[in-house]
Amino acid sequence: MGQAAKVLQLFKTLHRTRQQVFKNDTRALEAARIKINEEFKSNKSETSPKKIEELIKIGSDVELLLRTSVVQGIHTDHNTLNSSM
């Protein structure tokens, strides 16, 4: 798979993961969408294959972290939270 295809696949995967992890949390969904788009846009003109591979690795690590480590809390009472994963 070419680098451009890998980058596009990562972009889509990050957005899908964002939608799953932050489901029903519009503020977090929007913040994550903006951050993902900003990061990809800021590196849009990168041409070094080595640097692009490094960025792909970082993005993949972030996606894994989101998927496995983020816990959303839901207020159920004044001082009570339920976690959802």
Automatic annotation (TrEMBL):
CDD domains named in the record: Complex1_LYR_LYRM7
Superkingdom of origin: Eukaryota
Location(s) in or outside the cell: Mitochondrion matrix
Primary subcellular site in the record, as a coarse category: mitochondrion
Keyword Transport recorded: no
KW Chaperone (keyword) present: yes
Domain Complex 1 LYR protein as annotated: residue spans: 6-60
Pfam families: Complex1_LYR
Keyword tags: Chaperone, Mitochondrion
Subunit composition and interactions: Interacts with UQCRFS1.
PANTHER family for the chain: COMPLEX III ASSEMBLY FACTOR LYRM7
Similarity comment: Belongs to the complex I LYR family.
Function noted in UniProt: Assembly factor required for Rieske Fe-S protein UQCRFS1 incorporation into the cytochrome b-c1 (CIII) complex. Functions as a chaperone, binding to this subunit within the mitochondrial matrix and stabilizing it prior to its translocation and insertion into the late CIII dimeric intermediate within the mitochondrial inner membrane.
The protein's name: Complex III assembly factor LYRM7
Organism: Acinonyx jubatus
